[in-house]
Design brief:
It comes from Jatrophihabitans endophyticus. There is one protein chain. By secondary structure, the protein is of the alpha/beta class. It has one domain: TIM Barrel (Alpha-Beta Barrel), CATH 3.20.20.330. An eight-stranded parallel β-sheet has the order 1-8-7-6-5-4-3-2. Helix 11 links the parallel strand 7 and strand 8. The radius of gyration is 20 Å and the shape is globular. The structure holds zinc ion. The site of zinc ion has 5 residues, from loops.
Amino acid sequence: MTRSPASRPSARTFEQRLADGVMVGAEGYVFELERRGYVKAGPYVPEVILDAPDALRQLHREFLRAGADVMVALTYYAHREKLRDVGRGDDLEPMNRQAVRIANEIAAEGGALVAGNICNTWCYDPANPAESGAIVRDQYREQLGWAVEEGVDFVISETNDFLGEALVGLEVCQELGLSAMVTLASVRPDTTYDGYDYVEACRRLADAGAAVVGLNCSRGPATMLPLLERIRDSVDVPVAAQPVPYRTDDATPAFESLTGADGGRLFPVRLESAGHTRFEMAEFAREAQAIGIDYVGICCGGSPHLVRAMAEAMGRETPASRYSPALDLHPVLGEGHNDVMGDWSATAS
Ligand SMILES: [Zn+2]
């Protein structure tokens, strides 16, 4: 079956949904599925789409129950060159199609929008933008062509290290008549890898027609918020923020460079000790909403309990809120507890 962009899966468009008020995003699929044993750290190719589709369905469902307004098709890194690198080049089309089908299937359980997904390809070379951009363009056309046929409401183009590559992705979305939310990674302190101040890069993306601009991945709340404020003040389009839930700071603005007590690198598979709690991510969501961010989500490291806390902080009651903490009912921590075990306040003395 072939669908045109006119047959988008949802009754409402992305723009209409944005106009209703702040949207809740949820990502970090690859990291979460790696932790669950379905994706290999290192290549980070989403082989789970074909190898264990029920594991992917379940994570989509958990994000949906946690309040996510969008099911993002797990086509991150499912582009031609990456799949060839891991010996799965023949699976390119089935993997992309199935990812979008699964996103649609679970979105329909809760009225979420469906986003196609493209990302940094590692093929773009700012020293040779025409030739490398053509290679990137072909990969995006291929992925998004299948996404359109399977049905998506809009596209999330994310983790863009280069403004040039982000603009290629935006052009391909426009060729296909798709709205695009385009977000930049921000590994470097001030500029994209092709030398544009992040604020300027967002302004150029907005001028080029992106429906939403902003930042995803790389930065935790503490180092993403100051940049978001500047972006918010500089563009007229909606702004997206999908940080990582890790404790980045001025000395280490991006989580890729975080180190542990032993001085060793924490990224990507020993980040737990730098993780934010659900309460801290809820505080981020409140602050992002307060400065006028329109799409508040989470990236690598995201998991359903963090998304639920963020959604609730922004005033939502989610399907999973039925099981949100009620510590007053805890046998020791609650009021009127049974005194047999004391109050757990004892410390070594
Ligand atoms: Zn990420």
